Amino acid sequence: MKYFNLFSNILLTKGAKRILISDLQRNISELLPLELYNLIEELKISSIEDILDNYDTESKEIIQDYLDFLLEKEYGFISLDSWDKNFPALSYDYQDYNVLSNLFIELDDIAILKKIKSSLENLEIKHLVIYCKRSLTIDELLKIDNTFENSTLEGIEIFSQFYVSIDETFIQNLNQETTRIYNLIFYNCEEAPFKVKDNFRFSLKFTSLNLKTSSCGKVSLDYFNTNITKVLEAVNHNSCLHKKISIDSEGNIKNCPSMPQSFGNIKNTTLEKALAHPDFKKYWNLTKDEIEVCKDCEFRYICTDCRAYTERTHTNAEGLDISKPLKCGYNPYTGEWQEWSTNPLKEKAIKYYGMEELVKKN
């Protein structure tokens, strides 16, 4: 008897209309027909010969085509024994031993960084994301990096408004004088000042978009990420809020700067005290499997959730908002994408969040 076995690094996500097959080793995903999911489930318990015996000639040809496809794509292999006896499945457990994974700050005065440095160390935060509504000077960028010299912080990502003094020399100086900045984005830049090369230590991007904290939460194919760490986190926890903490422009400590609930202000509350609040972690373990519509979506484990902006249609028994993200235009029941901001079913939520200016005119 011959058996088809999926490689342990292959994750199948069943949606209402299609399935997504994710190769967690190659970091790629592919959409496939829903009927393939049923076949793979059948192949887990029955031999290829037994399955083929149950179908007519035409169906056998289809099944064989699917098997050839799966083998060609290296999603699995043929064995003479069943999967259960010899090939252990991949564990989908997620382990992150840090108290918090990253801190997001809407930064205006960089002096706040010295104030929170000890908390950042105590909470074992590895990544810092900084968004600034104004343009950061080269001296400020250097001070940001130098503030965390000899720190356990591993990386800093910065979003800063572009200004005319930023040129290749500016970037080269940062490249030579900083150690922790790993991603640098300059927004409101009509045209890049020079051609970005790959010879910088950090990633560099110039964008014409006017980025704001309210810009987050948009669901798009461009943002999907088949990364085993991100996927396993999404399987077990909330893919946006798990082990995250933020400080908004007024100093309020929140799960996300766009969410309404504050757990104190950094002027008189430490990050440790805010984290200890009984409600701080309430969304940490809310997975896409529990969110309306998302639970039927084939993209749910490679997509980042948003609890700051939702359609405001459902809550669960614990009072958590389990509504579909507002800025998602995908319908898993039809397999079609639409512009989210023009959907009449979202008008009430759009008005609630004061996002009327985002609605595109036809």
Automatic annotation (TrEMBL):
Determine the domain of life of the protein's source: Bacteria
UniProt domain 4Fe4S-binding SPASM: residue ranges: 242-298
Its recorded name reads: Grasp-with-spasm system SPASM domain peptide maturase
